[in-house]
UniProtKB/TrEMBL annotation:
Keywords: DNA-binding, Transcription, Transcription regulation. Transmembrane segments: none annotated. InterPro entries: Homeodomain-like_sf, HTH_TetR, Repressor_TetR_C, Tet_transcr_reg_TetR-rel_C_sf. It comes from Rhodococcus jostii. This is Tetracyclin repressor, C-terminal all-alpha domain. Residues 22-82 form the HTH tetR-type domain.
């Protein structure tokens, strides 16, 4: 007789954990994010998850294939949080700018998770929705498909690169991070104009920028460049962009 198949929902835990919660993918992802915040990527393990959830560690495999599969779910969760509550305005520049800032902030709310997941492709629901939304904004703005895809990749990869970079900085011990920032004041800001005229002329600006992410500036440069591309395309087509 053929082996009876058990549905995915039937395999999942129905009884509450020791903490009184009923297990779900969301609960596991939220718990994993908490572990990453406190212990870093090295602290994310099946054993630690089991302890934190108050459940047998093997229970994780009812929901995920393993830690790597959970990592993809974490990546998708961060993407979903980026879009939560966002509404398009119809102005492609403003929409992509607000999405970029929201996405970067969502990743930096969980810097250890940003470092772990920014380079991954989840293939899950939130990621697919994000790809569809961003491509739709670009195509509806008038970018041809080839240009839309290239801009999509540059836009997303820029945000993820800054999320990983800034997340790695935030994940450093406080003393190390502050020591790095102090070097801008104690070293670069003290260089004489005779030997380093350009650094000396801009020292205050360099110190100021070291206190925050360069992502907003980089995002505006990318979008302004995209707008210039669109103007050229419209000129070639014999139309004028407002």
């Amino acid at each position: 007789m053929a082996k009876q198949m058990v549905s995915e929902s039937a395999r999942r835990r129905r009884r509450p954990t020791k903490q009184g919660a009923v297990l779900s993918e969301k609960l596991i992802v939220d718990t994993a994010l908490r572990l990453l915040r406190h212990h870093g990527s090295a602290g994310l393990s099946v054993r630690r998850l089991g302890v934190a959830l108050g459940a047998d560690p093997s229970t994780l495999y009812r929901y995920f294939d393993g830690i790597d599969d959970l990592t993809l779910a974490i990546a998708d969760e961060l993407i979903g949080r980026s879009f939560h509550g966002w509404e398009p305005t119809g102005d492609w520049w403003r929409d992509l700018h607000s999405l970029g800032i929201r996405s970067h902030a969502a990743y930096l709310d969980h810097p250890q998770a940003a470092v772990l997941s920014a380079s991954r492709v989840s293939g899950r629901t939130s990621e697919k929705s994000a790809v569809e939304t961003i491509l739709g904004i670009l195509r509806e703005a008038g970018f041809p498909d080839g240009a839309a895809v290239r801009l999509y990749r540059a836009y997303v990869d820029q945000m993820l690169a800054f999320a990983a970079l800034d997340g790695a900085e935030l994940a450093l011990p406080d003393a190390v991070r502050e020591s790095d920032r102090q070097l801008w004041r104690s070293s670069y800001a003290q260089l004489p104009a005779e030997t380093h005229p350009h650094i000396a002329a801009t020292a205050d600006l360099l110190v100021d920028l070291s206190e925050r992410s360069a992502y907003p500036n980089a995002l505006e440069l990318l979008l302004d460049g995209a707008r210039a591309v669109l103007h050229r395309l419209d000129s070639t087509r014999g139309t004028t962009t407002p």
